[in-house]
Every structure is written in C-alpha cells, then in structure tokens.
Write a structure and sequence with these properties.
mainly alpha
Length: about 240
C-alpha cells in the first residue's frame, strides 16, 4: 500500500516534500484531515469572525472594511500558493527549479523581512511622524491588546504571502532565463500562466492602499511591491514568449 500523509500526498514520490511550508503545516496537523478547499474556507471564516468580534467588542465598526480586506488578501494568498504549487508540481520541469521554489523556505525569510519592516513602521516610524497612527485609526486609543495581537497575526499572514509572491516572481525569472530552453511548448505555456497568476495576486494587494492613504511610506511600499512583481514576472513571461 502506498504511504500517504494526512493531506493525501504520496510520500514515496520524490517530489512529495517540494511544497510550501504553509502546505506542509496544513497537511501535518495531528488528527486533522482537511481538503485544500476546506482549509481555505476555514481560514477565511476564522479570521473574518475574529475581525467582526473585535469590531463589535470595541465598537470599531469603521475598521471592519480594512480588516475584511486584509483577511481577503491573506486568503487570496493561500489560493495563490496552492494554485501555483499544484500547477508547478504536475509539470515536467527541472527538479532544480521545484526544489529551489518550494524546498528552501526562503519565502518565510522574505515574509519575515516584510513583517519586521511593517512592525518597525507601525510602532516606531508612524508614532514619530505626528498625527494619527495607522493602529490608532483602526483600533482606537488606548490600543486594546487583544485587537493588536489579532491584527498582527493577520498582518503576518499577509506579509508571508507577500514574501511568497516575491520568491515565486524571482525564481520564475531565473527559471525562464536559465532552465527553460529544453521545455516543451505546453510546459512553457503553463509556466507563463503561473507567472501571470503571480502578477494577479500582487495586483489584488492594491486593495489595501485605500486604507493607508494618509501614510505615504505604506502606500509607496505596497505600490512599489506590485510594480516590482509586475516587472519581474512580466519579464519572465516575455522570455518564455520568445521560446514559442
């Protein structure tokens, strides 16, 4: 009998460990066996329930749209990761590419960099700039500890997905430049779609901009991130197009 993990993957497959850390965690919780769709719905429901509960508990209903958009972006990031993971693993591509993309865990490092930069802005730069801070505008003053904790959890989820987008974009361009010459036309077409999905997820993050309009550093960070992903993955698509 073929050995399988709780998420249904075949552990005898040499590519079974070539997956995002997020996927491995979801599939390794003892006693829990959820389909990918169920895990996504559960994530969305739990996070949104937390947003609604905190808005009601602290009377901050005006913050509900911002919280909901952040939850939607995080959930869209989960869809993005699962989608490009599934599409990539079913392709006949060099193992060097799939190992580098999934097996190094660099997306976590990039996510941490984004999260630490955001926390530094929220608790150091923003309070020192004068005027109402992002957190005060959303959560009120004094800042309620449970709301701050939950907000940081959601923001980490968003930052982790942003780090994954960076990594997928950079490795996509590297793959297109150095590993795509021997690929067949169908594989090249699918890799172009994966690059387009990476750009699409980045553009979804622009929905966060209206909630930080009064904070030019955050606006520049989000817009700059989206432009960078678009340029890098767009360049990858152009390289692949040249191969057709």
């Amino acid at each position: 009998m073929t050995p399988r993990q709780p998420d249904g993957r075949d552990v005898s497959d040499p590519r079974s460990n070539q997956r995002w850390v997020y996927e491995s965690i979801v599939g390794s919780i003892p006693g829990v066996s959820l389909s990918r769709g169920a895990a996504l719905v559960l994530q969305l429901v739990i996070f949104e329930a937390g947003v609604v509960a905190l808005a009601a508990g602290y009377g901050r209903w005006g913050s509900l749209p911002a919280g909901t958009v952040a939850v939607v972006v995080a959930s869209a990031g989960s869809v993005f990761m699962l989608t490009i993971g599934r599409r990539t693993r079913r392709l006949d591509v060099p193992e060097q590419y799939t190992h580098t993309l999934f097996g190094t865990g660099i997306e976590i490092v990039l996510g941490l960099v984004a999260f630490f930069a955001l926390v530094t802005y929220l608790f150091v730069l923003d309070p020192g700039s004068g005027g109402e801070t992002v957190l005060t505008g959303l959560l009120g003053e004094p800042l309620p500890a449970p709301a701050v904790f939950f907000t940081l959890v959601v923001l980490w989820d968003v930052c982790y997905r942003i780090g994954t987008g960076w990594w997928a974009s950079l490795i996509g361009l590297w793959r297109s430049l150095w590993l795509s010459e021997a690929l067949d036309r169908e594989t090249v077409d699918e890799l172009r779609r994966i690059d387009a999905i990476t750009i699409g997820f980045a553009w979804i993050q622009l929905s966060l901009v209206p909630f930080v309009v009064g904070h030019p550093i955050l606006v520049a960070a989000v817009v700059g991130h989206v432009v960078a992903i678009t340029l890098v993955s767009g360049a990858s698509i152009l390289v692949l197009h040249r191969l057709k």
